[in-house]
Every structure is written in C-alpha cells, then in structure tokens.
Specification:
253 residues; mainly beta; 10-stranded antiparallel barrel; 5-stranded antiparallel beta sheet; elongated
Length: 253
C-alpha cells in the first residue's frame, strides 16, 4: 500500500512538473506582406557603382519565436526575409565590369538580398501598457547580385553573378506601447548593424490584439525600411534600400 501511495505521489509530481514546464514555454508565429520600393547601386569592389532603376515588388517575412520563464537564458526568434527585386540600366558609352565580365549598352539586374535573422533577446518589460525586448541578432545573407547583358530586343544573352553568404552582427530592440482594455498598440522593431554600422532594418506601426481559441492574435500594419550599405562585402560594394508599407499577423500560443 505504501509503495502504491509513493508511486502515485511520484507520478503526480512528474505530471505537475511537466505541466509547469509546459506553461513556461510560449511560441509566436507570424508573417508580413510587404510592398517595397527598391533603389540603390552596387558594383564589384574597386569598380564605380552602377545605379539601376528598380521596379516595386512584393516582399515577405515569416518568423517563429520561443519564449520561456528562465531568467538567465535569452529567448530566441528566427525570421526569414525574402527581398528580391529587378532593375534596368542603360550604360551608353560606358561599361560595367562585374565578376570578370564586361557589360555595355542595356543591362538588367536581379538583386536578391534575402536573409535570415537569428535573434537572442530578453524581455525587460511585459505588461498591457509597455513591452520591451532587447538583445542581439545575426543577419545571415543568402542572396546574390546578378548582372544580365540584354540584346536589342531586351532579352538576356549572358550574365555574371556574385553570391552573398556573409552575416552581419546587429543590435536588436522591440518595443510596444498599448492601451489597456482595447487591444490597440503601437510598435517599433529595430535592428542596427554593429560590424556593418550602415546596415539597418526597422519597422514602425500600429496593431490590434485579441483573444482567439487557444491563442492570441495580433493584426498589424506599418512601415518597414531595410538599408544595405556595405563595402567589400563578399566582393561587392553596395548601397541598396527596400522600404514601404506592410501588413501582417502574429499568433501567440
């Protein structure tokens, strides 16, 4: 009988501990649709930068965050950003040297600045009125710069491409100011380059939070600006910018 009681007590303790651990862990998943205007220049290192006339394209981001109640350990966020734009330029009598090839006349580019953010952060404040997260991030680039030679009909006949694979260490901050009882809030999400001080990625906007079935939902709209101003970055010097309005949703479990 004593063994049975002891076994039941041990099982109950394990269940309680498991439930408590589960309650300490929360998950956030979300996504943004971003209509961004793109501008800027780039060139191979040592060459004059070429300005392209970029078209406005739809971009997007998706993310997942894991938060817990262990004070000494940071929370973790993983965000995938798709940033891809096309542009054209007419060189006239000049030429552009890129990745060992010479381009002239009408050219185009496929500029892919897609990247993945790995973020470690601490929740310094978390209530209905004010929330503040601070931490550090590593923005891992995985895109490329591509230059296409166009014929007289505007058809690509050859190209040269340089891949981007280096990462950028960044400071990270996320702040929210809300109106208790209404679910309305303003937010700012900021990343500023540390080793590349002219690189930044920030968003500002307004949102509405409401309770769902088993999870909380946030609907948000705002403005986002990503600046990629680098020198000798994977063999490329560039100054590109993606900026525009976005709309998104986030679910908290």
């Amino acid at each position: 009988m004593k063994k049975t009681i002891l076994a039941c007590a041990l099982l109950g303790s394990m269940v309680a501990t498991s439930a408590q651990a589960a309650s300490l862990i929360g998950f956030k998943v979300g996504g943004d649709y971003w209509k961004a205007d793109t501008s800027g220049t780039f060139a191979e290192n040592g060459q004059p930068q070429q300005d392209f006339n970029y078209s406005s394209d739809s971009q997007g981001s998706v993310w997942v965050a894991v938060e817990h109640g262990i004070p000494i350990l940071p929370n973790f966020k993983l965000r995938e950003n798709r940033l891809d734009a096309s542009g054209r330029a007419s060189l006239g009598e000049s030429v552009m040297n890129f990745d060992g090839q010479e381009f002239g006349g009408d050219i185009s580019t496929n500029t892919d600045l897609s990247n993945t953010d790995f973020v470690l952060y601490y929740e310094l404040l978390d209530n209905d009125m004010v929330a503040l997260d601070l931490g550090a991030a590593y923005k891992k680039m995985h895109g490329s710069y591509r230059v296409n030679q166009l014929d007289q009909n505007g058809i690509g006949v050859r190209y040269a491409e340089k891949d981007l694979s280096t990462g950028i260490v960044m400071a990270y901050a996320d702040a929210q100011v809300g109106i208790p009882g209404l679910g309305l809030y303003g937010f700012a999400d900021v990343m500023i380059g540390v080793d590349e001080s002219s690189v930044y990625d920030y968003s500002l906007g307004l949102g509405w939070q409401f309770d769902g079935t088993g999870f909380d939902t946030k609907v948000r709209v705002g403005y986002r600006d990503f600046k990629f101003d680098v020198s000798d970055f994977d063999g490329v010097t560039a100054n590109n910018q993606f900026k525009g309005y976005f709309a998104g949703v986030e679910l908290t479990f």
